[in-house]
From TrEMBL:
Its EC number is 3.6.1.-. It is found in: Cytoplasm. GO terms for molecular function: GTP binding; GTPase activity; metal ion binding; rRNA binding. One of its GO terms (biological process) is ribosomal small subunit biogenesis. This is Small ribosomal subunit biogenesis GTPase RsgA. It comes from Acanthopleuribacter pedis. Residues 115-262 form the EngC GTPase domain. GO terms for cellular component: cytoplasm. The gene is rsgA. Residues 339-358 have a biased composition (Basic residues). One of several proteins that assist in the late maturation steps of the functional core of the 30S ribosomal subunit. Helps release RbfA from mature subunits. May play a role in the assembly of ribosomal proteins into the subunit. Circularly permuted GTPase that catalyzes slow GTP hydrolysis, GTPase activity is stimulated by the 30S ribosomal subunit.
Amino acid sequence: MTSNNQLYGNQQNHLLRDWGFMDGVHSEVDNRLLGRVTAVHRGHWELATAAGSFRAVTAGRLGHQQAEVPVTGDWVVWHGMPGHDERLVIDQVLPRRTQITRKAAGTASAQVLVANVDWVWIVTSLNRDWNPARLERYLAMVWESGAKPAVVLSKCDLVDNRDDWIEKTEAVAFGAPIYPISAINDQGLDAAAASLQPGETVALLGSSGVGKSTLTNHLLARDRQETSAVRDLDQRGRHTTTHRELFQLPSGALLIDTPGLRELGLWTGEAAVAEVFAEVEALAGACRFRDCRHGNEPGCAVRAAMETGDLDQRRFDNYGKLQREVQRQEELQTASGRQARKQREKTLHKHIRQVKNR
Ligand SMILES: Nc1nc2c(ncn2[C@@H]2O[C@H](COP(=O)(O)OP(=O)(O)OP(=O)(O)O)[C@@H](O)[C@H]2O)c(=O)[nH]1
Ligand SMILES: [Zn+2]
């Protein structure tokens, strides 16, 4: 016999599944008290629950700890009376499967942009926005998040040599799927959309103006996110996406549009940087000395590859740059890290003294 409670539970599971809920993942929490953050506004959150979508605020103590502030895509536990209370109250943010973190602009703290996404589509338009170093930076950020990266080459209608751009992108982002698209010619949109499974969440990341909201509109097949051609223009006459919002796509996948990012400081992720530059890592493994700095050491495979042109000098330089950046961040974040830095500086100074005394 099926009890009313069970029926109720099944129906709720179904509604939450439309927002990406996966059975077994949050089984310890009563589904009736579970919700997903679909948008973050100043001072309140938009929450999708099994009873519908409602505004919510956070319980007082939540707001004080940066790490616990709900972001778009978060699964949360809430209380309140949907439809009766003006706002529900978010009590707890559930552990995140994935989270995209950057070093917050102008500060020394981390900012979580979105949570629980399966894919990140790094959107770059052809051809002015395309920048290999920036792509590498995005890729490191995504690998570090736990989500999988793909590259969307937007505005393909603006170039005639589309295949050249794909090839150039492949050389920087190997391993990541590449989707060339044009919203104007309606090219590549179906292929990109078809790559997502129902229940999967994708977040769009990229600079302002690359066409994220336009892509969102096309995938939604309705004008939810306004684009610059339409209205909601800022003083400079441009549209700006001002918050991160989670949408249900007709296919059953979920999509988060985000505002253009200007600053893209890495927070953590030495392993992620290594992942992005796998070929440099592999070469470094073939150097004669294990601790080769790829400077003047004999038997340096990295330098040899640059001399033959097999390895791009630009790529090697950016690899070093990103590696130093995350090392610095990770060291700053731990007390033992501070000691490690001191130790390295000491060794460096010793080295300098030795060189001087030669
Ligand atoms: N030629 C061409 N233009 C496009 C295409 N997609 C978008 N655009 C134009 O690019 C401009 C910016 O598009 P948006 O979708 O607002 O860009 P966005 O990435 O959402 O920008 P932010 O919200 O500021 O982050 C608009 O004028 C669009 O009409 C495309 O496929 N081809
Ligand atoms: Zn070397």
